[in-house]
């Protein structure tokens, strides 16, 4: 094993071992508290240009499989773990996480006191970081950290988006067509729509309103994505055009922030963000609390109470994080109270779970009139308790049999 160093923008230095690819990398240091789902985290395009610190101390136990990636590659700029699994143990695994990181050229560091590092980021806020297995002098690395790019002000969606439009066909009878703007979309999102009878036309981040309406969509969807929403202007203008034309809208995460901006609200950078899979959120429209998956460093600045008159209708905050009162959802209604569009700051597609928020896809299909023909919304109780993509869908029975991870 060879040594490596991690240097934060404020000069704090950690020493560990090289993990994954050897070399040097820079990004914004953020921490993720998920105990499961590291493959989904690594392949989430929203982590582009971020160095992710895992608070779960043991990472890599179930290796890497070909079913769980959320996109075509790993996007994190660097990976920080405490204690990598020395042995891979899962029936779906085809390789180790260490091999996968190395194969994709992702620089990581292990043997780090991730609790101390996380507490530091929580106290001081997310900041730039460098990891290097080639530099031994922290002061020299610190200079390069301070010269590296900032997250605030960065437009990054265009760096991760698909170059070409493609179609995800409806699973079963087709009920609806949705145009989905890929700002860093995760594969589970079109899948969640497709399994509700939606044909999803995934369009590049640069798509114009004309290209969207050419698909003749029943609704418009904006995905999650990396970067600062305040630096992402083209998509806000396109969304304003779509809202003016009365096209129903649903947005997730970045799609919530851009909806907020389209409605005239501001966005701001959180001190250290929300990244994990157990964040409690209140749906104010039903009074129910759900446990949700998050990955956001920015948030919408909208009044928690009352509604705001916008050129497109009345906008209000529909969801709030119970940990810190951060805006977690918005909705837009017309003068007679009819829903025109909505969005959430978290991840109802939640590939690694939890699935509490799956109802939001039903809400979108309902908004588009997809259940009008007598078909009823699939109840969330029909969602499998444990879900494994690919050929080997697993149910609760196999879990209790101990056959699943
Ligand atoms: N997952 C996302 O869509 C993240 C949105 C935005 N880049 C943020 O960090 O807040």
UniProtKB/TrEMBL annotation:
Belongs to the CarA family. It is an enzyme of class 6 (ligase). Residues 374-405 are annotated as: Disordered. The gene is carA. The active site is at residues 253, 347, 349. Composed of two chains; the small (or glutamine) chain promotes the hydrolysis of glutamine to ammonia, which is used by the large (or ammonia) chain to synthesize carbamoyl phosphate. Tetramer of heterodimers (alpha,beta)4. GO terms for molecular function: ATP binding; carbamoyl-phosphate synthase (glutamine-hydrolyzing) activity. Residues 2-132 form the Carbamoyl-phosphate synthase small subunit N-terminal domain. Small subunit of the glutamine-dependent carbamoyl phosphate synthetase (CPSase). CPSase catalyzes the formation of carbamoyl phosphate from the ammonia moiety of glutamine, carbonate, and phosphate donated by ATP, constituting the first step of 2 biosynthetic pathways, one leading to arginine and/or urea and the other to pyrimidine nucleotides. The small subunit (glutamine amidotransferase) binds and cleaves glutamine to supply the large subunit with the substrate ammonia. L-glutamine binds at residues 46, 225, 227, 254, 257, 295, 297-298. It comes from the Bacteria. It comes from Nocardioides soli. This is Carbamoyl phosphate synthase small chain. PROSITE patterns: GATASE_TYPE_1 (PS51273).
């Amino acid at each position: 094993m060879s040594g490596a160093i991690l240097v934060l923008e404020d000069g704090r230095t950690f020493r560990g071992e090289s993990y994954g690819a050897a070399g040097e990398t820079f990004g914004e240091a953020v921490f993720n508290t998920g105990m499961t789902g590291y493959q989904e985290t690594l392949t989430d395009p929203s982590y582009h240009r971020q160095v992710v610190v895992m608070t779960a101390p043991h990472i890599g136990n179930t290796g890497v499989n070909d079913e769980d990636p959320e996109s075509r590659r790993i996007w994190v700029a660097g990976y920080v773990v405490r204690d990598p699994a020395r042995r891979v143990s899962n029936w779906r695994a085809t390789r180790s996480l260490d091999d996968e990181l190395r194969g994709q050229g992702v620089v990581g560091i292990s043997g780090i006191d991730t609790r101390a590092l996380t507490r530091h980021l929580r106290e001081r806020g997310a900041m730039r970081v460098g990891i290097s297995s080639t530099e031994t002098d922290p002061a020299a690395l610190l200079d390069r950290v301070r010269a590296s790019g900032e997250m605030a002000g960065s437009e990054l969606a265009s760096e991760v988006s698909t170059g070409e439009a493609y179609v995800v066909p409806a699973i079963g009878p087709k009920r609806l067509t949705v145009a989905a703007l890929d700002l860093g979309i995760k594969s589970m999102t079109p899948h969640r729509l497709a399994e509700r009878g939606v044909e999803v036309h995934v369009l590049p981040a640069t798509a114009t309103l004309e290209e969207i309406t050419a698909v003749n969509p029943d609704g418009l969807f904006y995905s999650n994505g990396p970067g600062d929403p305040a630096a992402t202007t083209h998509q806000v203008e396109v969304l304003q055009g779509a809202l003016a034309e009365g096209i129903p809208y649903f947005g997730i995460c970045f799609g919530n922030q851009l909806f907020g901006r389209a409605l005239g609200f501001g966005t701001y950078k959180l001190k250290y963000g929300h990244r994990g899979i157990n964040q409690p959120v209140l749906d104010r429209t039903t009074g129910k609390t759900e446990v949700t998956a998050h990955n956001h460093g920015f948030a919408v600045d909208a009044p928690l109470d009352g509604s705001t008159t916008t050129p497109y209708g009345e906008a209000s905050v529909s969801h709030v994080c119970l940990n810190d009162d951060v805006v977690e959802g918005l909705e837009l209604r017309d003068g007679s109270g009819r829903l025109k569009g909505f969005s959430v700051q978290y991840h109802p597609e939640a590939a690694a779970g939890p699935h509490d928020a799956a109802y939001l896809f039903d809400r979108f299909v309902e908004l588009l009139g997809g259940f009008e023909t007598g078909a009823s919304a699939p109840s969330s109780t029909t969602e499998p308790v444990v879900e494994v993509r690919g050929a080997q869908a697993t149910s609760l029975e196999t879990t209790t049999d101990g056959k699943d991870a």
